[in-house]
């Protein structure tokens, strides 16, 4: 067992060096910012794993990379070598955690540039709020479309790309081979009495139907992001509350800032963000947002 104090172990964990279950070695958690790495960064991580660790790395569900097997006496060397290529460790503690964007930037289903948003959120909230102590961890997920691959609705703050369609009255010609109806996987688009109709209670704003009609019956109404508040994984998972509107990315980032400050001021020690919302009520939380 390693001979250092519990206080030092806690300090190292806050820096992204987590004591392994063998009580001798540390895992180094490396931040990827937007889930991508350049060749020189990948090479350096591999070098560090070979030189100081077990010779392999693993990936967390939040797009960070972990290098296991780091000895205590090598921690400062690892930090220095990561810094050579602009990388750093972290990602733990009662603060805004590393941001998780899906691959919507390059995905055929992506409606927003998720990785760009991830970088913006990382800079503004992971780095910018790094010294802000919160009641518990605060996780942010950015999904490019309603497929929800990275489960934004199970993050403390979830962002989902949206493209809302609208019907261009008079352009539907009742062609009896409606591609709009075929495109809709939610069963929201239907031809009724020889006209296309969209049930917006079913529509998830995936945008697949927009501009698909050869006669222009479906066009873009609004695009942006949906916001979920207070989701969480773990022993007691909870789907976040949908704010019910489509926001611009800039509006979403401003709402993150307001939400974090409310959580800091009104959350109890050890209380997750979703539990705070449950305690005071979502309508009261929305009112708090509007008052800032």
UniProtKB/TrEMBL annotation:
Any Pfam family hit: NIR_SIR
Origin: domain of life: Bacteria
Ranges of residues in domain 4Fe-4S ferredoxin-type: 163-193, 194-223
TM stretches of this protein: none
PANTHER family attached to this UniProt entry: ANAEROBIC SULFITE REDUCTASE SUBUNIT C (PTHR11493:SF54), SULFITE REDUCTASE [NADPH] SUBUNIT BETA-RELATED (PTHR11493)
Protein name, as recorded: 4Fe-4S binding protein
């Amino acid at each position: 067992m390693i001979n250092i104090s519990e206080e030092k172990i806690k300090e190292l964990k806050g820096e992204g060096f987590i004591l392994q279950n063998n009580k001798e070695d540390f895992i180094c958690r490396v931040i990827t910012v937007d889930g991508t790495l350049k060749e020189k960064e990948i090479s350096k991580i591999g070098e560090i794993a070979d030189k100081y660790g077990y010779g392999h790395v693993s990936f967390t569900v939040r797009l960070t990379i972990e290098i296991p097997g780091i000895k205590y006496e090598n921690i400062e060397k690892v930090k220095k070598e990561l810094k050579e290529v602009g990388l750093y460790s972290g990602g733990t503690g009662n603060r805004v955690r590393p941001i998780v964007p899906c691959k919507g930037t390059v995905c055929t289903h992506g409606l927003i540039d998720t990785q760009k948003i991830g970088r913006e959120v990382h800079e503004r909230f992971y780095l910018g709020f790094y010294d802000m102590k919160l009641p518990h961890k605060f996780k942010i997920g950015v999904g490019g479309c309603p497929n929800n691959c990275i489960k934004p609705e199970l993050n403390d703050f979830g962002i989902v790309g949206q493209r809302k369609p609208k019907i261009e009255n008079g352009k539907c010609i009742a062609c009896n081979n409606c591609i709009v109806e075929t495109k809709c996987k939610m069963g929201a688009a239907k031809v009724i009495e020889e006209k296309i109709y969209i049930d917006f209670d079913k529509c998830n704003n995936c945008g697949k139907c927009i501009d698909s009609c050869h006669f222009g019956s479906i066009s873009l109404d609004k695009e942006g992001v949906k916001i979920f508040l207070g989701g969480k994984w773990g022993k007691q998972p909870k789907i976040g509350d949908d704010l019910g509107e489509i926001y611009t990315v800039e509006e979403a980032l401003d709402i993150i800032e307001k939400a974090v400050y409310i959580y800091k001021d009104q959350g109890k020690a050890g209380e997750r963000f979703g539990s705070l919302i449950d305690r005071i009520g979502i309508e009261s939380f929305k009112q708090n947002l509007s008052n800032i």
